[in-house]
Amino acid sequence: MSYKEQIDLQRLPAHIAIIMDGNGRWAKKQGKNRIFGHHKGVETVRKITDAGAQLGVKYLTLYAFSTENWGRPSFEVNALMELLVHTIRKETKQLNKNNICLKAIGNLEMLPPKCLRELKDAMELTKNNNRMTLTLALSYSARWEITEAVKQICQKVSSGQLNIAEVNEQLVAQNLSTAYMPDPELLIRTSGEQRISNYLLWQIAYSELFFTEKFWPEFDEEEFYKAICIFQQRERRFGKLNTTEQ
Ligand code: IPE
Ligand code: IPE
Ligand code: MG
Hints:
Layout: H1 3-6, E1 15-19, H2 23-29, H3 34-55, E2 59-66, H4 74-97, E3 100-105, H5 113-126, E4 132-140, H6 142-158, H7 169-174, E5 186-189, E6 208-211, H8 221-233
Parallel strand pairs: 1-2, 1-5, 2-4, 3-4, 5-6
One 3-methylbut-3-enyl trihydrogen diphosphate is lined by residues 20-25, 65, 69, 80, 191, 216.
């Protein structure tokens, strides 16, 4: 039986987050430059977005560019920004047709103006779509996001809008850029690295983690379905005991 056939559609994770890693190493393996890998990686984004929407996943959140990635050589940063503009321009119509809502989290003001404009237009066009929400984490890092939330909360306290006693986990979550979605049940990272690299630190407190050796450009539907099957075999206890032990 294929992995897809093994998926219990009644128990799908509502939110899957992915760290799309390994474009550069994949390209090197082909004797090509890193930028070639990023281009190939866009094809995987398209495939996995379609696969997620078709299954009925409600939220897919992709780590596309981290705060730390600004520290890469400007040739690569510029190529990635160009690719982003080009991809949004090319794919938005189809996203809209597929009833997918595009969102972005991160320090978007850091993006080149052309990128930001393209992104905002695409988000505006797709904002009422409700089949699946595709969120791109761009110029994103979890520590930046949490720091921003702390600032917003402090602002409300100092202006007298909020009492310190009212600060709780729910309030913190509401001040994160992910406030519109549930926490991811499943986090996937490609390329064999087993680390979080400053992604969704607050939100993945109880996520199931799936690491695969496949580089992002070679990640495909089958591996995506496999991750979901393995997720469904896990027992999530949230610090409590399993049902038979109670
Ligand atoms: C992931 O691939 C894409 C981005 C971080 C933009 P990498 O560019 O990190 O590729 P590797 O990990 O160096 O192979
Ligand atoms: C994480 O990948 C960021 C993205 C996938 C956008 P990196 O390649 O930047 O992470 P490290 O450097 O291996 O931790
Ligand atoms: Mg990498």
